[in-house]
Amino acid sequence: MNAREGRAARVVTWSPSVTLVPTHGCFNACGYCGFRESPDPAAPLADGLSDRGALALMEDRPSASEVLLLSGEVAPGSPHRRRWFGRLLDLSRLALAAGRLPHTNAGPLSRREMAALGRLNPSIGLMLEGLGPAYDALHRRAPSKRLEVRLGQLEQAGRLGIAFTTGLLLGVGESEADRIEALELLSLIQQQWGHIQEVILQPFRPPGRSAQPLTLHESGTLLPVIAAAREILPPEVHLQLPPNLWPLEQLPRALEAGVNDLGGIDIHDVINPAYPQPGQARLQAVLEAEGWELRPRLCVHQGWLDRLPSGLRQAAEACTRRLLHTC
Ligand code: SF4
After folding, report:
1. CATH number of the domain bearing residue 114
2. How many domains does the chain fold into?
3. Distances from the Cα of 316 to the Cα of 123, 302, 323, 326, angstroms
4. Among candidates 181, 171, 180, which has minimal Cα distance to 203?
5. pLDDT by residue (tens digit) across 194-240?
6. Pocket test for ligand 1, best of 27, 33, 135 (most atoms within 8 A of CB)
7. Model's pTM, two decimal places?
8. How far is the CA of 204 from the centre of ligand 1 (A)?
């Protein structure tokens, strides 16, 4: 037996996921976005997904316990906001009725909207993105990306007791100090409310024709921020890295530095379609060779299950059984 075989497996989690997009239309215009389309002012859901289309996508992914509802944003106060938000609720109900768990990432929500969505979604997501001049420049035309708006959302979710996923976009010109300050803010919020289940450390990658995989050198320069995040954030907060945005052979180094989750993985990455997913079998082979066990999870992490309203907890328990049988 060699040393690797002799040591207990270390665990890295992932969530088998299918992504539903109610609309690509978005009133923001972030400087790096390859997902956004200009909304049709008269009918902002014109490019949207029908119930039948949503069910077909779910059926194509029988092992996906998570339904990621990912949407472009409709401005607060827009006459179309109510209809857009109603669609998020309807798709959440559709996912639950199909035996899946919705996890919505659709931008800032009013308190009432977030509370309503929290009764149907075991967890909700919103990236902090980052702070400092590099982000300010990229978000000049994205009012919902202002730092105070994002922090307000994290606190609101904390007050509502909703398990929350947030994260940082890395490599857009931010300084080391900006990264540390952002992580410290997340840590303070977690210490106050205890609802942040995971922080995504997402390397920025150019979209479309400019797509370029992260090089070994570039990923090496990001290892210190992973280590810093592990040190600054409380231990219950999972650290997540999207595996399609990172060189596969370098993934074990990211895990050694502190990453312990690979996030929701669909067949394609809807936000970064130019970066193919490595697939479960390849991931498993690379990780097992280094003594890591790849373990499926729900969109809501185990440690937050007890906080769910009873209906959602029962749905989560049923999905846990699905995970055990299909992954
Ligand atoms: S808010 Fe999201 S969808 Fe809208 S432009 Fe920014 S990154 Fe794109």
Report:
1. 3.20.20.70
2. 1
3. 11, 10, 10, 15
4. 171
5. 999 999 999 999 998 899 999 999 999 999 999 999 999 999 999 99
6. 33
7. 0.95
8. 14
